[in-house]
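In this section we walk through a basic example: taking a raw amino acid sequence and producing a predicted 3D structure, encoded as discrete structure tokens. The instruction is simple. Fold the sequence below.
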Amino acid sequence: MAVSTQVKFFYDILSPYAWLGFETLCRYQKPWDLDLQLKPMNLGFIMKESGNKPPGMNPSKASMLARDVKRASEMVGVPYKPVNDFAKTVFIRGSVPTFKRL
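The resulting token sequence is shown next.
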């Protein structure tokens, strides 16, 4: 009997790339025989501690991010609709209140 491939998926609920990865992994979990382990994490905390800045803080990168996420969502066949006020959602509300419920 084949052994499942273990995948630890670390994700931030605010990351559009995490959403695309999550949906894709869930879609193929059975056909690929994946032992999928979901590991929520706070990317904002990691950015702060590493001295890095989110791409949304740089206008050029933010513009590219929007186009890239749209392209990636079409490529993997996962619908994606950005939140209305991305800056408020990410930089003011953040993901901590939701993490407390996970």
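Looking at the output, two observations stand out. DSSP finds five helices and two strands in the chain. The helical segments are 16-28, 43-50, 59-76, 86-93, 96-99. In the next section we compare this with other chains.
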